[in-house]
Structures
1.
Amino acid sequence: MSPASQSRSLIVDACQYCNWSELILRQLVEGRVSAITVTIAYHEDFRETVEHLVDWNRRFERHGDLIVPGRSAGDIDTAAQSGRTAVFFALQNCSPIEDDIGLLQILHQLGVRVMQLTYNNQSLLGAGCYEPVDGGITRMGREVIAEMNRLGFLIDMSHSGERSTLEAIAASQRPIAITHANPHWWRPAVRNKSDAVLKALADSGGMLGLSLYPHHLKDGSACAVTSFAEMAARLADEIGVDHIGIGSDLCQDQPDSVVFWMRDGRWTKTTQAGAGAKAGEGFPPQPHWFRDNRDWPHIRAALIEAGFSVTDADKVMGGNWRRFYGDAFAVGV
Amino acid sequence: MSPASQSRSLIVDACQYCNWSELILRQLVEGRVSAITVTIAYHEDFRETVEHLVDWNRRFERHGDLIVPGRSAGDIDTAAQSGRTAVFFALQNCSPIEDDIGLLQILHQLGVRVMQLTYNNQSLLGAGCYEPVDGGITRMGREVIAEMNRLGFLIDMSHSGERSTLEAIAASQRPIAITHANPHWWRPAVRNKSDAVLKALADSGGMLGLSLYPHHLKDGSACAVTSFAEMAARLADEIGVDHIGIGSDLCQDQPDSVVFWMRDGRWTKTTQAGAGAKAGEGFPPQPHWFRDNRDWPHIRAALIEAGFSVTDADKVMGGNWRRFYGDAFAVGV
């Protein structure tokens, strides 16, 4: 295969947090998913994050026939050529670096390639999207952005507040990503993004991963795939197809205790609402057209039905992330 | 330069623990030392060890004109060709892996390439050389040896008891090292090694790094370089020149508090004796012919004076470690 035809046929998902099992890894391969970026930590500190990395090292050792470590964009091609899935690591919060900027390079050495500066709440680096006040990027936040730029460590602002997001886009020397969110105009959820953010993101060369998490979808779990695809088509007209990919936020086989961990961490003793869910509500049902990693063809077909050319549909399905990761993870830029 | 001539001219020191400064790094370059293996931890747990790795990441970033990260043996050649020093990382104890075998791969990913299974005392893996009873390699010790073999993580038994050392040599699928010790027949110190250990080490393809730490030397700080070189010559006759290198144990510019940390860690509330020193004694003075990294020519000259050919002297000075590291750190063997 030529690089161009590879790029057209890639499926890349920029955000998954499944309850990993051999079953799910086999579904990834069956679904011809060439790369996923998996969440390693939400509220974990450094030491706890390392234990999750130990678990992944063991998965790579045991399931080398199904998955390969994702470190640079070329690993996506390696995976695609050998019928496996490249697994990249992401942090949804900065808690794993604690208050030590040196832990960024340590985590990068351990294979982590993406980090959100905030997760819903105020962090040491910026404000999350549920904070009543967003004071923007902090002093340490600016240092961390510069260090992430140096290392080739992708900045993700999916769960950040508006001001913090705009300031991160402006402060970063490299384009950033919002790996899993949708336009606010399609579903007015706190987690979905304003026109101002989407425009600034695309204008700076960044990427939006469209989310398939029901609370981010119009009509929630009942959302039609045609509605999703039409949203993507309108967004492509607005910000350009080259800036759109998918970050499904798939949380397959997770017990509800996990969504409470995501929302509540250890920062509260009460049960919080989040992402359109009332306090105490568990994971919403997946839309029927995206239950696991064998369902990607439904989305591709809907994109083409909604007016995307085959070339553009394949950009959204994975080609754009492949291109973007190539720049985002390159060292010595 | 051909690989052969490179190999002849290399200086490699398998054990240093200096109080690192730009001054010392410049002395390494001035002394044309192509590689050193530095101690990262004695009694530190994983998290503390990571902070030392953070410090080294910063040194590599700031002093890229002087040092390069040592990960594989080829980095020694890279350093030699560019007039810099490759810095490899070693642990003198297994405390950094705590009771988690998965931390071996994590530390390997962070660049660590050598680990002692024990440091003077009983560890989770085996017995140290000061324990009254040496029960040999433990259950976890056997698992760790197998995992180190898989990763290309060199086993070092410098501070281990006799039985544990012999059992590690037998259990390991790869040759092991004793990176810093001398023959017991030359200086009968607890830390120096018996004929049985030296023979088993060499017969299995292992390496001994001759120590320049005064308590390991005949006549201590007053040891003559001729005595050291004559010891090396006799040892080469006994076990073969290909199994001998140098591990100086240089602790330049360290305050005495560091030697108390080495001996006492946090395992005792009292002050211990160690390596020929009485309790409470600080670092001994260096022999006048090896005060810092500009003094290597004195040793090479003495080796040739003691009867080594130039070829064999250069093997001892660094060529043997270069060859041995090539096998020891190779992955997928």
2.
Amino acid sequence: MNKRRRVIRRAISIAILAAALGFGAAQPAGSQRNQTGGADPLPSWNDGAAKRGIIDFVSRVTRAGGPDFVPVADRIATLDNDGTLWVEKPLPVEVYFLFARVRELAAKDPSLKERQPFNAAIEGDAAYFHEAGKKAVLELFVATETGMDQEQFAAEARHFIEKWRNPKLDRRFTELAYQPMIELLAYLRRSGFQTWICSGGTIDFLRVFAPQIYGIPVDQIIGTELKLESRMVDDRLVVWRLPGIEAINDKEGKPVGIDRQIGKRPILVAGNVGNYGDVAMMQYSKGRRGPSFQLLINHDDAAREFAYGEKDNASLNAAKKYGFTVVNIKSDWKTVFGVGQAAAAK
Amino acid sequence: MNKRRRVIRRAISIAILAAALGFGAAQPAGSQRNQTGGADPLPSWNDGAAKRGIIDFVSRVTRAGGPDFVPVADRIATLDNDGTLWVEKPLPVEVYFLFARVRELAAKDPSLKERQPFNAAIEGDAAYFHEAGKKAVLELFVATETGMDQEQFAAEARHFIEKWRNPKLDRRFTELAYQPMIELLAYLRRSGFQTWICSGGTIDFLRVFAPQIYGIPVDQIIGTELKLESRMVDDRLVVWRLPGIEAINDKEGKPVGIDRQIGKRPILVAGNVGNYGDVAMMQYSKGRRGPSFQLLINHDDAAREFAYGEKDNASLNAAKKYGFTVVNIKSDWKTVFGVGQAAAAK
């Protein structure tokens, strides 16, 4: 027994050492050797300030004994989802889910067609929602996604997303993730980071696809939350979805959501230009005592994805002021989309 | 390189196998071989229905290919804290923290001594709070634990708890944990479970001691939550504590808290007789499709700890009705307290 335990102990020590050296985990598909002889952790990224900044930061915080070393327990990364990890245009996927639900309801109650925002949802009128903003989306949300328990909701959301295709790109939900960000997630996890989603989307919808697409477990997702209550249904306790919003996880709500679920400032965050949704989360990370790194993705590639910004350039201005690293899709990403479903295996 | 990677792969395979067989992790202090030759995972538990029930359940859900096998991702355990993992008498530790804070405030504002519940807090009048209940405690809480940022709060709470001793048992906070429960946590984690705290105490106070005492990270703690907001202080974004309660994580609030932070029904839960606080969480676990196990701790040992129950016996009645497993401290626990601080190393 003692000999057996010694052998096992030695095996574990080797495994831990191997993991620490970065050999333990599988390399992402398509990884290549770089000039220094190591595997390139981000093969879909062009060489440039963003890629070099990421690799430099990860190297510094993982170098044991170095001045910027961060213990594994504090290697927290939080990443926005829509527009950061996957496509958010013409509208975020979840909005199409709401549209589909409104159409189902309108089949039973045709009077919905006479009222906004329901008519715009039935017509799939993206311009209306760009104009009316988040408030109109939340109105749809409360009208269509409540009055059921959490398990019923998950089944409905799964049913929708498995059939749906992005109307402009004609891609399945599994094919909408940005390949460079999938590589970043894998690289961070191999480097001992926890990778959390921190999204303005609703937590329950995110939970339906994030494990499969990003390899992120359902308990590492922070999102907008409905009001909920415990309820006995047929002598079984269920968590019931009430018609109201508990917390909007966007803008200044994101640091609060991170504090509630993680309890630590993230050392690395990623967000995107679009609705100024991620600047507060980046400032929160930047305010950490110790090293931190913030990535802001700029959608400037109409040919391969979508090109959009903000009227007042607020996110890019904040990046300049606070020293966030800007990722320009056009020049920084060699590849935008992968082959889909690859992430689930990582 | 290829040979090196093969060696490392083999080492990892052995380590994984060893972990699956339960050899990988350190055994808890005082572990002994049992009659079948394996290490006893719960040496501070007397042989009885509770201990046998736990070991039988863990064996069934971890047996690959068995009818009750549960994948690692679904091996979620949620455990109450006060009265389940550590002592909650004469009053929960956090209440003594509130008392100390009220005394500090009263030193600046003597008029507090004229008002309840402040006078009772200053006098350390446990009987008053047993009578006035949770509402009076929350009033103290809002009056004393808000108007600062999360990092200031954590520093104050840490400062308090490191000096404090339980007035009846004359033990430090690290010596108040139940040794049988520390062993249970270690056994569950070695068996691939995530061990979460789900407490009526406030999440921010729990975060100050749970990692050290239980080896539970701050992001696996569910508790009562204050209202919070993002705020810029000296050009640094902080999360600010507002004077209001966001969510009470007790009774029917516990399944909601679990859904928000974990997103899965727990397969194992532990709570205690005292204020009917854990029955909803147990029903929620019981309502899972698939195997589940519920432990209800009954405080019947005035000699070694405290003896208390509920006037209407509601928790014990629920245990009988729903089939929860009752742990009687007097007969089920060989040892109640360990040597303190042992858990941090596990």
